[in-house]
Design goal:
This is STAG2 protein. This protein is an all-alpha fold and 278 residues long. The chain is 64% helix and 0% strand. It starts with a helix and ends in a 16-residue tail after the last helix. About 2% of the residues have low confidence.
């Protein structure tokens, strides 16, 4: 009897879905399209056994191409709710491989709010499975740490931090207590220097620091570690920093001190709503 009741309810749900949602998710009014996508996201979270499959996910994927930013935004926030729950990751694999390129392209969306949520969604995808995003996908997000729009840059900074800086070797209990050149931050500071030099935007260190300030404050304020990298002799088997790398580290260090003292974003970085032309 329980099974019969469940089948009956699922048949009703299916009839409502086909009779209402399938027609209205393409409604002429953007607000109705947005409500449809928001609700299907809730259904997939609440009753993933029935709704979290590619028959339903495809509607969210298709709607990511909607002309209205508010509708694209609802797609991304609905997907964030799903990717946040790691237990659902296996059910999202096919969707991810099929629509990943679209999500990556949305990091350059003309609506800043959409771009920010696209980056946040990719950060969740990264946490669910690092293999999904290619090096090229990641590069597309990395360069956004230099964006003039601060929310986009901060979201990209968090993505960069999760990908390149959040792996700490904590095998030994004592390693976290080491300071200066031997601290776990030493390799992370070097990684930051290498990234800054590879990005070849050498006049924009302040932008990079500001982008990562919220998620990597402890690293960026570890001036003792930075000093020791500049002043102390390399440890056995350790590659010394080149003159160019030392100059970059000094520049980054100055920017972190200025950021800590002044507590505001660098000149030219704002929170405007529209993206300018190239």
């Amino acid at each position: 009897q329980l099974q019969e009741n469940q089948d009956e309810i699922e048949n009703m749900m299916n009839a409502i879905f086909k009779g209402v949602f399938v027609h209205r998710y393409r409604d002429a009014i953007a607000e109705i399209r947005a409500i449809c996508i928001e609700e299907i996201g809730i259904w997939m979270k609440m009753y993933s056994d029935a709704f979290l499959n590619d028959s339903y996910l495809k509607y969210v994927g298709w709607t990511m191409h909607d002309k209205q930013g508010e509708v694209r935004l609802k797609c991304l926030t609905a997907l964030q709710g799903l990717y946040y729950n790691k237990e659902l990751n296996s059910k999202l694999e096919l969707f991810t491989s099929r629509f990943k390129d679209r999500i990556v392209s949305m990091t350059l969306d003309k609506e800043y709010d959409v771009a920010v949520q696209a980056i946040k969604l990719l950060t969740l995808v990264l946490q669910s499975s690092e293999e999904v995003l290619t090096a090229e996908d990641c590069e597309n997000v990395y360069h956004l740490v230099y964006s003039a729009h601060r929310p986009v840059a901060v979201a990209a900074g968090e993505f960069l931090y999760k990908k390149l800086f959040s792996r700490r070797d904590t095998e030994e209990d004592g390693i976290l207590k080491r300071r200066g050149r031997q601290s776990p931050n030493a390799n992370l500071v070097k990684t930051l220097v290498f990234f800054f030099l590879e990005s070849e935007l050498h006049e924009h260190a302040a932008y990079l620091v500001d982008s990562m300030w919220d998620c990597a404050t402890d690293l960026l304020k570890d001036w003792e570690c930075m000093n020791s990298l500049l002043l102390e002799e390399p440890l056995n088997g350790e590659e010394p920093l080149t003159d160019r790398q030392e100059s970059a580290l000094i520049e980054i260090m100055l920017c972190t001190i200025r950021q800590a003292a002044e507590c505001h974003p660098p000149v030219g970085r704002g929170t405007g709503k529209r993206v300018g032309t190239k």
